[in-house]
Amino acid sequence: MKPAAGIPSDIAKTRADMTFNVTVQPSGHAFEVARDEAILAAAMRQGVGLPYGCKDGACGSCKCKMLDGRVIHGAHQAKALSEAEEAAGYILTCCATPQTDVVLEAREVVGADDFPVMKMPSRVNSLTKAAPDVVILRLQLPANTTFGYHAGQYVEFILRDGSRRSYSMASAPQKPNTEIELHIRHMPGGKFTDHVFSAMKEKDILRVEGPFGTFFLREDSSKPIVLLASGTGFAPIKAIIEEMEAKGITRPTVLYWGCRSKADLYLHDWAEAAAARLPHLRYVPVLSEPKADDAWAGRTGFVHQVVMADLPDLSGHEVYACGAPVMVESAKRDFVAQRGLPEAAFYADAFTSEADKHAAG
């Protein structure tokens, strides 16, 4: 059928079949996107491994270059995609809906669809207060469920009102995987964390869905690794270290964990023990605001700046960074600009709170 006179062909196409084709370069992979569907959601549904993090327009992990086509963006943060970047042709696939066929330039993530996304009930096995504002939560998974994931990925809690909260697994996947560990930081006024710290108890039932995310170790590389964490961004880093040990991966690795005070290094003993046990692993804790009674003789300052002081040349490294968005953004900018890190060798998962996401627009 020919489009009606005066109606652009792309609009006529939308009315006719309600789908658009998205092609990813350089792989050449193509998939269909329904009208009013975000590109990322369609890619995930069809097993195309586009990079992503929060799925809410807050972190920028899904940003890529649009080589051809037109999209409309939903609400997102300017720090995830600035007006200048959008004008230069960059898009956020998590909140971009195509208005025409689209060609993207994006590095696809091998292994992103290795494990099916599952919804399941889970039971609280234990709640352990590791710091005044951090709880280590262990969840029992259904006995008849085979839940697989890459260390570094996350699950979403589905709350009673349908809202969701995302937390990274802090334990490496086991076979069979009957329990997962999560690190929950209290956000005063937070719908979920207030409940965790005040009312949650053992044997409570929670609904979770996952795994999600493309933050996990690229095992096809032999480059030395920098693991960079701030606060509870340590959780997926811990899982990666456990998985490396389980698989016998011995690439030279240094873990930098930045916190404000010594009490915030809530698994400091675990990290020290891992470094003592694994010859390829070195551990460098960093405090930005040590207290007088910390009696801290270790490194101080911003954690990513300590990395740069230790490693003047990152051109041959891979960096895996997780934690506060300001840390992740500063590390990527400075490592690439000042230490020669290839941008493609920086993998990140910025922890965006609900307050961060509600600031989108």
Plain-language structure description:
By secondary structure, this protein is an alpha/beta fold. It folds into three domains: about 10-105, Ubiquitin-like (UB roll) (Roll), CATH 3.10.20; about 120-210, Elongation Factor Tu (Ef-tu), domain 3 (Beta Barrel), CATH 2.40.30; about 225-360, Nucleotide-binding domain of ferredoxin-NADP reductase (FNR) module (Rossmann fold, 3-Layer(aba) Sandwich), CATH 3.40.50.80. It is about 20% helix and about 30% strand. The protein has nine helices and 19 strands. The protein has helices spanning about 10-15, 40-45, 85, 190-200, 235-245, 270-275, 305-310, 325-340, 355-360; strands at about 20-25, 30-35, 65-70, 70-75, 90, 95-100, 100-105, 120-130, 135-140, 155-160, 165-170, 180-185, 205-210, 225-230, 255-260, 280-285, 300, 320-325, 345-350. The chain has a six-stranded antiparallel β-sheet with strand order 11-10-13-8-9-12, with helices on one face. It has a six-stranded parallel β-sheet with strand order 17-16-15-14-18-19, sandwiched between helices. Strands 2-1-7-3-5 form a five-stranded mixed β-sheet. Strand 1 (about 20-25) and strand 2 form a beta hairpin. Helix 7 runs parallel beside helix 8. The longest helix is centred in the C-terminal third of the chain and has 15 residues, at about 325-340. The chain starts with 8 loop residues before the first helix and ends with a helix.
